[in-house]
Every structure is written in C-alpha cells, then in structure tokens.
Amino acid sequence: MDTKSQIIYIATNLFQQKGYKGVGVSEILNACTITKGALYHHFPNGKEELLITCLESIDQAITTDIEVIFKQYQTTQEALCAMIEKLVANFEREGTISGYTFSSIVSEMASLSEPVRNTCSNLYAKIQEIYIKKLVEDGFSKDTAASIALMITASIEGAIMLCLTDNTSEPLKVISHVLPNVLKES
Amino acid sequence: MDTKSQIIYIATNLFQQKGYKGVGVSEILNACTITKGALYHHFPNGKEELLITCLESIDQAITTDIEVIFKQYQTTQEALCAMIEKLVANFEREGTISGYTFSSIVSEMASLSEPVRNTCSNLYAKIQEIYIKKLVEDGFSKDTAASIALMITASIEGAIMLCLTDNTSEPLKVISHVLPNVLKES
DNA sequence: GTCTATAAGCAGATAGAC
DNA sequence: GTCTATCTGCTTATAGAC
C-alpha cells in the first residue's frame, strides 16, 4: 500500500476511535512510522484536509459494506440482523467499533465545522437511502420507509454509543431483537 | 449564584456542546469572566476534575427532569412524547441540545478515561431505570421492559445526533412517531 | 477568594536538505 | 517523496501578590 493510502487507513481508524481533537498529528505520524514531511506533502492543508479525506473513505467503506449485506438477504429484517451481528463480532474482536460509525467526529465537529457537518449529514443520508430502498421493496410506502430508516439509523448509532460506554456488546444485541417491532406496519 | 456553581453551569453547557477536548480552559474562563486563579482554587486538579463535577451535575439535572415528566403522565408513551417534545423545543430555541445528552463527551472519552466512561455508564443506567420502572407499571415483564428501555435510550441519543448533524429537529419528531411501535407487546 | 505573571510542554504547520 | 530542524501559538498548570 502506498504512503497516502496508509495514512488515510490509519488516521481513519484513529479518528473513529478518539474523535478529531482526540488524535494529534504526531500520533498519526507514529502509527504510520512516517514524519511530518510525508504527511504535509500528501495533505498540504493539514489535519482538517486529512479528516475530510478520511470521512470520504468511511463513506466508501460503509456504503459498499451495507449494500453488499443488503443484497445478500431477502428482507430488511434479515439484512439488519446480519449487519448488527457483524458489528457485534467487530466489537468483541477489537474492543471498539472501527467501521460503520463516526459519531465521535459528528458530535464533536457538528458545532465547529460546517464542511465536516455537511459531509457527515450526507453520509447518514446515503446509509438511510439503502434502508429505504429495501423497505420499499418489502412493501412499505415511501414515507413510512423513510421514518423506519431513520429509526434504524438512530437506534444503531445510539446502541454503538452504549456499547462503548458500558464496554459490552449487549446493547447492539438487544437492539437486534427489538428492531423487528419497528419493521411491522403501523 | 456563587463562582463555583457558575463555573459548573457554564462549563457543563460548553462540554455538552463541544466535547471535552473541544473546550479550552481559557474559553471557560472567558465565558465566566473569571481568571485562572479562581478556577484552580475551586478545582485544584484542573480540567478533568471539572469535567467529572459537570457530569455529576448533568446526572442530577437529567434524572430529576425525566422523573418529573414520568410522574406527570399515565403511560410510558405519553411521557416519552412529552419528553421528546421538550427536546425539540430546546433544539429549536437554542440550536443545540443543552440538556439530556452528553454523547459528545462519551464518544470522545470512553476510550481515553476509565473514570469518565464509568460515570457516563452509570448515568445511562440511571436513565434506563426510570423507563424500566414505568414500563413495568405499564404491564411489561422486567426483561422486556429492560430491552425496550435500552431501545428508547439508544434511539433518542441517536436521534439527537442526527438532529445536530442535519441541523433540523425532524429526526426527534420522527422517533416520537415510531417509538410507539416498540411499546407494543412482542 | 480572586488576581497577574509566567512556566513548561505540546499542538499544528513550514523550510529546506537529500 | 521523505527526511530533519525549527517556528509560532496555544494548552494546561503553577507561584505568589493582593
């Protein structure tokens, strides 16, 4: 892997785990075993440019990942269970959720940087689009599908936060059992 | 209000909005119109001690607030609607959610400071206890009540995050309409 | 109990050699 | 394209006057 890709890969992980301000440039440098010269060659506008690039990388990763899962399963409910199972496995293996979420960045940066807020907003919209498409295939109206998709996104993000706070994967497992109730026609 | 209470009040607000690292000591000083001398007199162990104190203050505020609402309404569903309505009003008035949430602190500090993670974990548990008690009164079994309470907490926290990201109160309103589906016997 | 002045260290960023 | 050395400014925290 070339240096730039490596920087993005490692920085993305760090940002997702510790947030933007929680990660120093020098920490990224150490993890990559490179020096400032290399980093500022690839990202002339520094740390914030790197963050935006990382968010785009997260975008790619999450979107393709979810799409693959959602194509693999017949119904939204099956797909969701498989997806959450993957998150649980990820958490139990690594102690954190490295993919799928960027809430640490959102809650920290939403009030501080408009471009970052916007990028995050678009990413959430994209994820929900995948849910909505599948839900419409399941037979829901477009409006209902949109509401359910939002509920799915919110509860999964919230559950991930509870997993990190309580240091167990239980919250995600519980969500997985309760979500089917949301997938019934109201 | 005495100086210490004022520091706690203002710092709590700032921490909730911008996270821990997002707020500098000097920013707190400016907002309080005091100087370092005063702050370090009241909090000899500096910024982290102040954060813990603020989390305890948030604990008090959230717990009493939710308890009052939950005593006012007959069913969990009514209470939840009233609570979310209050959050929406708060958001539309101030542009942020100043009470009720501390997700910015959680996602940033969970991996960095055990004492902070623990304090947050206890706070979430306390909130869920209130929901569980009401749900049992509604007729749910203790296990089911616990699952639903977790789902409520996760979806509200997630929805707050989406509100901040999208800069609209819609997500909370949508959650308010979808949550009743979770409150039906499965 | 609150002030001013200052310390010590780290942040992000730049310049120029190789 | 990557290195080293350096700069500026900001961070938290301390010391001591009032």
What does this protein structure show overall?
The structure is a homodimer of 186-residue chains. With 186 residues, chain A is mostly helical. Chain A has a domain at 55-183: Orthogonal Bundle (Tetracycline Repressor, domain 2). The first copy, chain A, has 9 helices and no strands. The first copy, chain A, has helices at 3-18, 25-32, 36-42, 46-72, 76-94, 103-109, 114-138, 142-166, 170-178. Chain A is elongated and about 55 Å long. The termini of chain A are far apart. Chains A and B meet through helix 6, helix 7, helix 8 and helix 9 of A and helix 6, helix 7, helix 8 and helix 9 of B. The first copy, chain A, binds a DNA duplex (18 and 18 nucleotides) through helix 3. Chains A, B: InterPro entries: Homeodomain-like_sf (IPR009057), HTH_TetR (IPR001647), Tet_transcr_reg_TetR-rel_C_sf (IPR036271), YxaF_TetR_C (IPR054156).
Quaternary organisation: homodimer
Q: What's the gyration radius of chain A in Å?
A: 18 Å
Q: What is the name of the CATH topology of the domain at 55-183 in chain A? A: Tetracycline Repressor, domain 2
Q: Based on helices, strands and strand pairing, what is the structural class of chain A? A: mainly alpha
- Tally of helical segments of chain A: 9
Quick one: biggest sheet of chain A? none
Strand content of the residues of chain A, in percent?
under 5%
Helix and strand pattern of chain A: HHHHHHHHH
Can you give the helix content of chain A as a percent range?
over 70%
CATH class designation of the domain at 55-183 in chain A: Mainly Alpha
The rounded distance between the terminal residues' Cα atoms of chain A is 50 Å
Query: Which runs of chain A of at least 5 residues are low in confidence (pLDDT < 50)?
Result: none
Strand count of chain A: 0
Principal-axis shape of chain A equals elongated
Mean pLDDT of chain A: 94
Task: Please name the CATH architecture of the domain at 55-183 in chain A.
Answer: Orthogonal Bundle
Measured by residues with Cβ under 8 Å of the partner chain's Cβ, the largest interface is: A-B, 45 and 46 residues
CATH homology-level superfamily of the domain at 55-183 in chain A: Tetracycline Repressor, domain 2
Keywords (chains A, B): DNA-binding, Transcription, Transcription regulation
Domain HTH tetR-type (chains A, B): 1-61
GO molecular function, one term (chains A, B): DNA binding
Protein name (chains A, B): TetR/AcrR family transcriptional regulator
